[in-house]
Amino acid sequence: MNNPKQATSIPIDLLRKYDRPGPRYTSYPTAPVWSSDVGADSYIQALQNASKNQDDAFAIYCHIPFCECRCYYCGCNTVITRNSDKVRLYIDTLKKEIENTAKHLQNRKNVNQLHFGGGTPTYLTIDQFNEILDTLDKHFVFTDDCEKSIEIDPRVTTDEQIAALVKRGFNRISMGVQDFDNDVQVAIGRIQSFDLVKAKVDYCKSLNFDGVNIDLIYGLPKQSLESFKTTLAKAISLRPDRVALYSFAYLPSVKANQMKIIESELPVTEDKYKLFALAIEMFTDAGYLQIGMDHFALPNDGLSVAQNDGRLHRNFMGYTVQASPEMVGFGMSSIGYIDNSFFQSYSSLTQYMESVEKSEFAVYRGMQLNQDDLIRQYVINALMCNFQLNFNEFYNKFKIQYHEYFMKEHKELSEVFVDNCLDAPSGGLRMSSVGRTCIRNIAMVFDAYLNKDSGSKKPTFSRTI
Known about the structure:
The chain has 465 residues and is α/β, with parallel strands linked by helices.
């Protein structure tokens, strides 16, 4: 490590204090409070309302659910199959959903962000993938500065597939790594060598992607401080543009595949804190800037520049510099945000395909935001993305005073101020470098739904650390 003075050291006592179940705030209001009363008819109306803003660009997310096998730790919506007929039907359904959406959006066509997630998007052949892209190209116009990104599994993605992505304008690529230690890989059912990942990273860099990113997970079985330190050093040696560092949420009652994980092999709570603290220290020491609670980016990366300028945005695809507040989701389990409303499609492959065939869309739940929702959404996004809230900008947008509207919530932040996680310079709120690790806890203070008893089963959230 070359610049030890840059490292951010996180007190373990602080992590212990703020570690509790809570939302990740990829959306506000969060998905557990969405309603089945909001369905396909509401979605069609929202698309038609959104079509009036013809000059505004929007984002597109496409979900490709297929994998050849399921990793033990995985929490994604996936379909394990080698049935080519099932894949063919899914592609046809996805194309039909794209066409239906374009019909209701009418002349609103500009797209400035496209992301393929999964599953394993490169499970599809080059021809199958191009078929989907051709359908998108037929109905939408991708802006010159469009960010086209995709998640890949280095174990199954060929160089030919990566080269084909470049030809179709993809400029960002993310690789699932999770951990480089062999014992950990065996314990999570995902074997991939460092040499394999390095070869894929080097090849992508040779093709001049704007960003080559990797994903890591802490809290996996058999992870130790020593083994994870080696994994982090190897990850840093690859010099990825961005790193996503996720906390492993062990929820075998929700994700049956996690029952293959031996619970006794998971790091105890105190050790998990230390793994997280070590990662923050090593990445910041290596020159990476902390983006949100669990992302890191090189100083010249677009995310770092945007955060420094207060222009960082966040949606279900992650952190982004593209100002596209609206997003259309395609595919099983996909989520969209249109006309100040959230919409989610069925997570069952059969339900998704049958619903699109029967009624154009597979939306089964969502939420139409009221003014209070929009106000709180703005505050949470500002803190989650840019680690600060400017009171003047807040007033200019909503014509209300922060301290009047959030008098109760601001008092609840007193403990965070005492712990030097947050301060209140003239005209705003600002997170400290240490306090960034408890950003989810701070966002929870502004969540109007979190402590309400809706009469239904309390949602299960992962722990904040």
